[in-house]
Write a structure and sequence with these properties.
binds zinc ion, 5 strands, Collagenase (Catalytic Domain), 185 residues, five-stranded mixed β-sheet, 7 helices
Amino acid sequence: MRVRTLTGGLAAVLVLSGPLLNGPAVAVAPVASVGAAQRQVVDDVVTYDTSGAAEFKAAVERGAAIWNESVETVELRPVASGQRADVRIVADDGWPRSVPTSMGNGTVYIGRQAVDQGYSTIRIAAHELGHMLGLPDRKPGPCSSLMSGASAGTSCTNPYPSAAEKAQVERNFEGAPAGALLGRT
Ligand SMILES: [Zn+2]
């Protein structure tokens, strides 16, 4: 789903364009009254379904919240009931992995093997969601990198993407509907 909210300048221009050109008034006045100061640009919303995430539901929700705090052009949102989600989250007894089918689409497996070895569940969830947002692994790598994953060791619990990882996700979703990048539309 593509959601773009622009208020202030552009909305004001749209509202004003009609009368200034002596043409019929353009009926978009309600937008301008929202308050010129507010500006938010979300190019894409990726929905996720945690119904299969079992004991990792809270960790996935925290991972999604961390991404929503970290980037502006895409939002991870729980799927509405009865709707088909872009991303399915499944808990299993294997090693964590992601199977993307397109940018912002696919299945994430939160594997208990890594949790049993002491890896942070929130870092695992944020890392696997990073794959859904188009990021590759960066292994081996430092704890400051989210996509270094398990290569940073069990003592690394950092669930936040680095500046470079955030910038890559912003580029992945900026302007173009995510699907267009990998044929999702
Ligand atoms: Zn990975």
